[in-house]
Specification:
about 5% strand; about 65% helix; homodimer; 6 helices; DNA-binding; mainly alpha
Chain lengths: ~140, ~140
DNA sequence: TTAACTCTTGAGAGTTACTCTCAGTCAATT
DNA sequence: AATTGACTGAGAGTAACTCTCAAGAGTTAA
């Protein structure tokens, strides 16, 4: 059993966020001790993991709650949960592609600046820069 | 020259967001026509591109404004801009790793549900499920 | 054993970055 | 002349945190 702080450290999620998620109903089996303090079981950690996963792919909290509720309902909702996971996975793959594209731009910019620095900031008028250098030097 | 709607379509950013970014000072050279309507040049599109890139990697708007301002100041800020790009790139690479990790979990879940469905939802008591199936079936 | 320190709690205010609504302007079409 | 459609700014609304605060336990140090 783990305190909220331990879970926060272990999962790299702030205590605030964990409390917020708990209040949102994301950890339906989370128990408290006699002092009203939340104690996370290993099973609760699995819920934290899946919530973190869904959030990191941009799933809205409302949709996460829906998934959690489907889990609680039980086996009859397995096909629906399967669809949600598939959709989420596709979203993640799309994000991967987008991130790759942005990394290409960042690579380009990195090289661009590196060259300027290597040449002692003197090639302001390389082909990248047209009539008004300061407008182009994005 | 492009209207805000054309840019919105081309770049897959909402008009609202573009106006919000414009008001935030992210497009310092953006001009208007005689009817006060924003007209984006190809150069303005480059600014949209870099802002979209920085945002998609989670850079705060305040930090983006700072980068834009450095661009406007000119050549003396090249080393600083270079550092920003490098830091941003590292952040993007980290996000890539995180996304890969989450994709593994989603793959696992996908297979898990697929198996349940293939076996007509009958293997509720496979090793994944302990004493209380509904608590484990995350 | 009292004081200091740490961890936790809930309530609620504050923040970021949109996102949307609305009333109004303007140009072009019917 | 009336309608349509793109655009405008101001400002309200929203999601998901993020932070502050006062209060209450338990642990440790003098």
């Amino acid at each position: 059993m783990y305190t909220i702080k331990e879970v926060a450290d272990k999962m790299e999620i702030s205590e605030h966020t964990l409390r917020f998620w708990a209040k949102s109903g994301f950890f339906p089996f989370l128990k408290r001790n006699h002092n009203n303090i939340r104690l996370f079981s290993d099973n609760d950690l699995e819920w934290v993991k899946i919530v973190k996963c869904l959030r990191s792919v941009g799933t809205e909290n409302k949709a996460i709650k829906k998934y959690i509720d489907l889990c609680i309902i039980g086996d009859s909702t397995i096909p629906e949960r399967y669809e949600i996971i598939k959709t989420t996975k596709n979203k993640a793959l799309q994000q991967m592609e987008e991130l790759k594209k942005q990394l290409e731009l960042l690579d380009y910019k990195e090289n661009f600046y590196q060259n300027l620095i290597k040449n002692n900031l003197k090639d302001e008028w390389n082909p990248m820069n047209k009539s008004k250098p300061e407008e182009e030097a994005v």
